[in-house]
Amino acid sequence: MRIRSNKIPVRLANLILLAAFVTALVASGFFAIRLTVHAVYWSSHRDEPIEPWMTVGYVAHSYNLEPKALFSALDLPTGVSDRRTLGDIASAKGVSFEALKSTIEASIGRSRQQSNGGLSDRMSGS
Amino acid sequence: MAFLADYGAFALFAILALGSLGVPLPSSLALLVAGSLVARDQLDLVSIFAWGIAGAVLGDQVGYLIGRLGSEGLAERLAERLHMADTLSHARTATVRWGAISVFLTRWLLSPLGPGVNIVAGMMAYPWSRFTVWGVFGEAVWVFQFVGLGILFSRSILAVADILGDLTWFLVFAVVAGLLGLKILYERRIGSASLQSH
């Protein structure tokens, strides 16, 4: 009695098992490739895109710069600890975040050119 | 991420609690960001660890409870109807045997499987004390690992998040493929023998 009810499900179960196995294998292969691509990509791109939630110190850290340079570019006092986010700073200054962002990016560009003669530009272009 | 910068450790608590319940939130990324904020002196290390682990463990416990209370007797009734009492008892034995290592590893190494394992552990009535001990231990490893990496690579957390995400999913699928492969080999080996015995 049991044999009849079991035989087909066993074959079907084996098929499902094999399909699941192949799927898992393909998926792990996909992530292995993605891992490699990301590792290669990120090894040449370190700088995070500037966003409103970041503080000046955060941006300076990400771009490997002295916070002082950025603070002075934004006409902010350099000696004191300022942990406001860029979004807050923009609204306190009455400018748009985009305007603030381009000021910062211009300042980063200037500092980079001074410090390593455009080395990072060449790296990010590759 | 803005949420995390504004509300700090408590935001981390909420994100990890929901994340370990299975809500698709970038919990690992939140830990990396928290680590990088610690490195920039914007958050306190001890409170990040305490709130982070507490949140993750809370989510695990709720998942376990849902599995346990939500399926009260359900497994038995289903097993009886489908004539699968043997299968159920096999599953229960396997849960007790492999439970500790599964709970531990799915906290940090194979974290995408965590929420599912919580519910299954509850359904299979895996001993709560063991679930909790291994769960806390595993979540502590996870929080230390990701906050630590966030501190170390605080300049490039997005890169680290991408790479760790890929690595985690690769490991998850590789482990699943490995287990299924073993199962297939095992079925093949006993296949002919069991056919004759039927």
TrEMBL record, chain A:
In terms of superkingdom, the source organism counts as Bacteria
Q: What is this protein called?
A: Uncharacterized protein
UniProtKB/TrEMBL annotation, chain B:
Q: Does the keyword RNA-binding apply?
A: no
Q: Does the keyword Transmembrane apply?
A: yes
The organism's superkingdom is given as Bacteria
Keyword list, A-Z: Cell membrane, Membrane, Transmembrane, Transmembrane helix
Which residue windows are transmembrane per the record?
46-67, 131-155, 167-186
Q: Which residues does UniProt call coiled coil?
A: none
Ranges where the VTT domain occurs: 25-151
The record's Gene Ontology cellular component field reads: plasma membrane
InterPro entries linked: DedA_domain (IPR051311), VTT_dom (IPR032816)
Q: Where in the cell is it found?
A: Cell membrane
Lipid bilayer topology: Multi-pass membrane protein
One Pfam annotation reads VTT_dom
Q: What is this protein called?
A: DedA-family protein possible cell membrane structure determinant
Q: What is the lineage of its organism?
A: Bacteria, Pseudomonadati, Pseudomonadota, Alphaproteobacteria, Hyphomicrobiales
